[in-house]
Design a protein that fits this description.
Order of helices and strands: HEE
Shape: elongated
Strand content: 15-25%
Largest sheet: 2 strands, antiparallel
Mean pLDDT: 85
Oligomer: single chain
Distance between the termini: 15 Å
Radius of gyration: 21 Å
Structural class: alpha+beta
Low-confidence stretches: none
Length: 107
């Protein structure tokens, strides 16, 4: 019995900030791993006995919706109304593409 639910804003904001921070660090660390692999492969005279898969992490960002209400335009404070994790759309088009999702987060 699976139900989709929503967190309150006060509960959701820290979760999404953490998730986008993890995505940021994961992308940076993956880049370092591939840089290391490329240096190691370039420094050897032997060819690799296997292919190294190239995976990547989708682009993502955090969008925060504010409500200014009746505040004056010069006032830059407001109330946070909603927060969203925006993720890259992987468009394979009509002809399809060579894409495999390795990690699934149930959405």
């Amino acid at each position: 019995d699976f139900r989709i639910g929503c967190f309150t804003l006060i509960d959701e904001m820290p979760k999404l900030f953490r998730e986008v921070n993890v995505l940021y660090w994961a992308k940076a660390l993956l880049g370092l791993v591939y840089d290391f692999i490329e240096c190691a492969v370039a420094s050897t005279s032997e060819s690799l006995p296997f292919n190294i898969p190239h995976v990547r992490i989708v682009e993502a960002g955090l969008a925060i919706s504010f409500f200014l209400g009746d505040a004056k335009p010069s006032v830059k404070t407001g109330t946070t109304r909603a927060v969203f994790l925006l993720e890259e759309v992987i468009d394979c088009g009509d002809e399809g593409c060579d894409f495999t999702k390795f990690i699934h987060n149930m959405d």
